[in-house]
């Protein structure tokens, strides 16, 4: 435990500080580990979950090297080395309106599968670009030594770092985990009560949803093992060397999988000991200040404010024109003020009651007492922030886990869902008025917040404790699921069925023959008795 960590957590005198340090040194042997924290997904909201963890690890005295897409640039963190990849955001190609519309549309039955094929291919391109960066190459070819690798677990690709440095591997996600990620630790998943979170379905599954979920659970595994893993394996061998093990074998040696799942927002599912559900990782109560102009706008909004943002990945300024016009027309009709995260300097036709800003300190804005409603895409981080600040939502989901997140708000009674294809002036105006005029939405989100945050510890402390657990024990093979060592045909009980079914068939056949013989015997006996009586 470092002096900096103690000082940052305690408000004590110098004498008390010295005594505290001496006690700590005597009571708990100080252990400092070398940690590599590798992230790859270009999303501010996703990276915001990981930043507090590598910061806290460094405060606790560990030497942390973070391959960071969003570095903290905090010079007080002397144990933290950030490999800055923020410039990769500029390399993102602009999405054409044709592709944007495709991603906005709620996928139909077949589109779910086509969309997954496209997204997994784009992720593979992203990983190839990631590894070819000179600063990443320096890590791969360097002579550093690490005690553990913490890898963002979109795919197992970043897990190659653990093999390169011969140390335990921990996977971490900024939300839940898709089926292949759960399979990597042998965690069970069921298409009905724990469907893949990327599916555009809610909490209550219709027959169509159950069919889709079942087929998707089969498809995603076949596609993953036949196409995704071989493609990622080529990338790993290209940059780490031909002597690297198959990436599918690397992922099966993961010690822990840390999931940013919250028991309120996400559906309940069974988890093995190697799967740790975190939740509440980010310090949402810590706010960056609002601009003075925006603060004045909020302070003077006596009728209430509606905040409109689609997060850091989907730019509202690139929405199709008919959606933008429907939103503008709706806002202009209503007696409330609106703050719109608009990524351009000018919003053509902007109503007087609309304030636009390219980037907003979202937690600070949602904490303002005049903000009464949040129109959001339904991302996990946005939902955590709005629940914490007791602000109901109108959710307009488009991809990933957003549909299920918004459905959570609907279930708990603090949100309304509108699909993009249903977004009109009438539907949006009706939803806004329903929430702004009905206090029950506010009361329901307060209840949800109490459930969400009533935990023995927060996700940050839980994440750090389990990371240090893996470091202390140099891995966690004792948490390994036995399912990982069972052949797939045994896991699916195919060998059991192969033996039992033929035996049952034979027994049923024998039973059928015996019954047929008995019936024939009885018929013969009955016919003889009748014949005897007649005679």
From TrEMBL:
Domain of life of the native organism: Eukaryota
EC numbers, comma separated: 2.4.1.17
Catalytic activities: glucuronate acceptor + UDP-alpha-D-glucuronate = acceptor beta-D-glucuronoside + UDP + H(+)
Example of a GO cellular component annotation carried by this entry: membrane
PROSITE patterns for this protein: UDPGT
Signal peptide, first to last residue: none
Mode of membrane association: Single-pass membrane protein
Top-tier EC class: transferase
InterPro entries in the record: UDP-glycosyltransferase, UDP_glucos_trans, UDP_glycos_trans_CS
Keywords: Glycosyltransferase, Membrane, Transferase, Transmembrane, Transmembrane helix
Transmembrane segments: 488-512
GO molecular function: glucuronosyltransferase activity
Primary site of residence: membrane
UniProt-annotated location(s): Membrane
Family note: Belongs to the UDP-glycosyltransferase family.
Name by which UniProt lists this protein: UDP-glucuronosyltransferase
